[in-house]
Design goal:
254 residues; alpha/beta; globular; binds 2-phosphoglycolic acid
Length: 254
């Protein structure tokens, strides 16, 4: 059984300054105001922009999320942002274990699990990212890698309400390469099976695909079984593109 409302999550990464970013968020929010039952829109801006965007989008039509959080709730951790701070500023979600954190900052599954526990304790939905690098796929190891990431990054108290899994093959992120629909179908079925017993109500847990999602490939990806939304980097920096992706969500048959 699949989840009818797709989650369209924009990951702005380390992009955006002041007024222009406010305009982008406002344009997305305006476009979402004629509520479309096919999707929920989420924007994950850099920490510095969350407060400003929260002031612009004050009706909840677009949800807000952080791109990372500390495993600690507060204290002497210079430069870190705690999950309760994200909650306090109006976030509902936080992306954890993005490949740019796993590979760029050496984050382990265990650290990502601790961060997810902190997110849950603060009342945030954790979007836990998994995905193999190119060499692992070439060696046919993608399921081993993703299986281990799932086994070790998901906290014990994960439920379909507080956890989303994003499959992002690392070689597809920001490269213009996308996994084939067959690869996505196979991996998402593998993930759906893999989270049974690890996430309460696993059938209703949203599984996102990420990696060079664009207006041109969104419809096919969003129509794939077990793809309950997308995590979008580059294309989320243009209001028209992220809206075209969102509107490519399949029409729900009541
Ligand atoms: P991309 O990034 O859409 O630019 O490939 C996706 C992501 O990293 O979440």
């Amino acid at each position: 059984m699949s989840i009818p409302r797709k989650l369209i999550a924009g990951n702005w990464k380390m992009n955006g300054l002041g007024r222009k970013s406010g305009e982008l968020a406002a344009a997305v929010a305006d476009a979402c105001r004629s509520v479309d039952p096919r999707f929920d829109m989420l924007i994950c801006p850099p920490f510095t922009l969350i407060s400003c965007i929260r002031g612009i989008i004050d009706d909840g039509v677009v949800k807000l999320g952080g791109q990372d959080c500390s495993p600690e709730a507060a204290g002497a951790f210079t430069g870190d942002i705690a999950a309760p701070m994200l909650k306090d500023i109006g976030c509902a979600f936080v992306i954890l274990g993005h490949s740019e954190r796993r590979h760029g900052h050496g984050e382990s599954n265990e650290l990502i699990r601790a961060k997810a526990e902190a997110a849950h304790a603060a009342g945030l939905v954790a979007i836990i990212c998994v995905g193999e690098i190119k060499e692992e796929r070439q060696a046919g190891q993608e399921k081993d890698v993703v299986g281990k990431q799932l086994a070790n990054s998901i906290p014990a108290l994960a439920t379909s309400e507080n956890t989303v899994i994003a499959y992002e093959p690392v070689w597809a992120i920001g490269t213009g390469l996308t996994a084939t629909p067959e690869d996505v179908l196979e991996m998402h079925a593998f993930i759906r099976a893999g989270i049974a017993g690890k996430i309460a109500n696993s059938e209703q847990t949203r599984l996102l695909y990420g990696g060079s999602v664009k207006p041109g490939n969104a419809a096919e990806l969003l129509a794939t079984a077990n793809v309950d939304g997308v995590l979008v980097g580059g294309a989320s920096l243009k209001a028209d593109d992220i809206m075209a992706i969102a509107k490519a969500s399949p029409v729900i048959n009541a």
